[in-house]
Amino acid sequence: MKHGRWRFLVGALVPALVLHVVFVLSPYAQAFYLSLTDWTGVAGEAHFVGAGNYARLGGDSLFLDAVRNNAVMLVVVPLVTIGIGLFLASMMHLGGRGGRRGIAGSGAYQIVYFFPQLLSLVVIAVLWGFVYNPNTGLLNGALRGLGLDGLTRSWLASPSLALIAVMAVLIWSSVGFYVVLFSAAIDSIPRELFEAALLDGAGRWATFRRVTLPLVRDSVQVAFVYLGIAALDAFAVVQVMTVGPGGPDGATEVIGLSLYRNAFQYGKFGYASAMGVALFFATLTLAVLALRSGRKERLELA
Fold this sequence. Notes:
Blueprint: H1 2-34, H2 52-57, H3 61-94, H4 106-114, H5 121-131, H6 138-145, H7 162-187, H8 191-199, H9 204-215, H10 217-233, H11 235-241, H12 255-264, H13 269-301
Protein name: ABC transporter permease
Keywords: Cell membrane, Membrane, Transmembrane, Transmembrane helix, Transport
Membrane topology: Multi-pass membrane protein
């Protein structure tokens, strides 16, 4: 019986492990190896260059612009998205009498907020490209209709505004999902805690700060990791929306776009693989720090 159990476990696990090695670990290993070569995409022409590709990254001004832009997005996109998501979710649940769900039709609001999730990110980028059009776009048209002609801009052609416009699209497309996520987390909080806070005379802000936020911290942590990964990518939105793409003057350049351009336009697959490895470790570092931070806070509370 014991041997039969082990045969069953091996038969169940080995195929899954083989598939994982072939389709997950093997591509990672190949990318790490290619990042140490000058491969141009043609079979048999890879020469080992060691850490040369990584040394080039430090002197590549366009790549450094991409790192700077991704760093800005890594700070702004998660913080703003989580802030808006928490605010909307809290207002739907804690905005009325009784300290609990006080807004009629909150389920309908969640559906409306979640709607952008039904659209592909490429479709969203195309739609917002029309919105930002300086001549026929909805944004400038609305400003002109309100008599604010002086505020109209070429939103995606201005180096000082292009990155903000891109981040606004990422936030708009993401916030609905996190409203639903945080709403579910708030729903799981026992009603008695809100009633106790109400009896103690706590206002809405105090209830949110002392009751809601600590108990949805795990959801906020997960949201930060996922939004951080999205901010470190942002390839699709930048590729579709911006001039160049990545312009103007590298104002919206991101690491994913630099990687794509070097690999598929310039044929520098080895150099592009080095960018991919750098992005991999940046993403891994972000996830580990976020998860360890949350674990440390839970231990301190315990």
